[in-house]
Specification:
alpha/beta; seven-stranded mixed beta sheet; globular
Length: 238
């Protein structure tokens, strides 16, 4: 059973967003928090280590974009790392199907452990690189949605992410204060077949600063030459 103080804190964090969780989902968030802290000691998944900051800066932040994920969407997450926003979204939205793409094998092992511990269905972890799988016909333009958080600047991130989405799908990008990055990425977004349809601005707390969730619609197919090699993407961003 959840500690009453922790339960009250969890509810306070989520209720700020109008999110009401069942006891089962509360238990899953607590279990995920425990696993994150356990594996963080081995793999350095996050610099955030205290429960209250984990719930606010990771869990609550991940759910800030929940409204943009349409029902029963097949979602791929690029650069999953500690499992944000995918795991909090999956806890809150069981209808979503997730494929987590992570290049570091030990982090993939951690993510698979999380999925099993939380009894997730339709939750797959793949060890690989976005610039390679984005050209693979098994993955290219096969997903309804793509998401990523704290992976790269937006112009670079779009080249990693947009090739995975079907035309008509969406890329939900979680960023810090991204006004400069959005302007910088406009050419990349258009070149890769996207269009910005929504920018959600919010502040988690006085200490956390301004944050953005950016929604990019895939309006046309990504040209076949993208994504380029990782070196080319970083050396000469679109």
């Amino acid at each position: 059973m959840l500690n009453k103080c922790k339960m009250a804190f969890m509810n306070k964090v989520f209720e700020k967003q109008g999110i009401i969780l069942s006891e089962e989902k509360e238990r899953k968030f607590e279990k995920f928090c425990s696993l994150l802290k356990e594996y963080n000691e081995k793999f350095n998944l996050t610099s955030i280590k205290e429960d209250d900051e984990i719930y606010e800066k990771h869990f609550s932040d991940s759910l800030k974009g929940e409204e943009f994920f349409f029902k029963n969407a097949n979602v791929i997450e690029i650069g999953s790392g500690g499992g944000f926003p995918s795991v909090p979204l999956k806890i809150a939205r069981e209808d979503l199907s997730f494929t987590l793409l992570e290049a570091t094998e030990k982090k993939c092992g951690y993510l698979k452990t999380v999925g099993k511990a939380l009894s997730f269905d339709n939750f797959t972890v793949i060890c690989g690189r976005a610039e390679e799988l984005g050209k693979d016909s098994s993955y290219r333009e096969k997903f309804d949605m793509v998401t990523a958080r704290a992976v790269a600047r937006l112009n670079v991130l779009c080249e990693y992410c947009l090739p995975f989405i079907k035309t008509g799908g969406s890329f939900v990008a979680y960023k810090g204060d991204a006004e400069e990055e959005i302007n910088e990425a406009l050419n990349a977004i258009e070149t890769l077949g996207g269009k910005i349809v929504k920018v959600k601005n919010f502040v988690l707390s006085e200490k956390s600063g301004r944050r953005n969730v950016i929604v990019i619609e895939k309006v046309k197919s990504t040209p076949s030459e993208y994504p380029r090699s990782n070196g080319a993407i970083k050396k000469k961003p679109l």
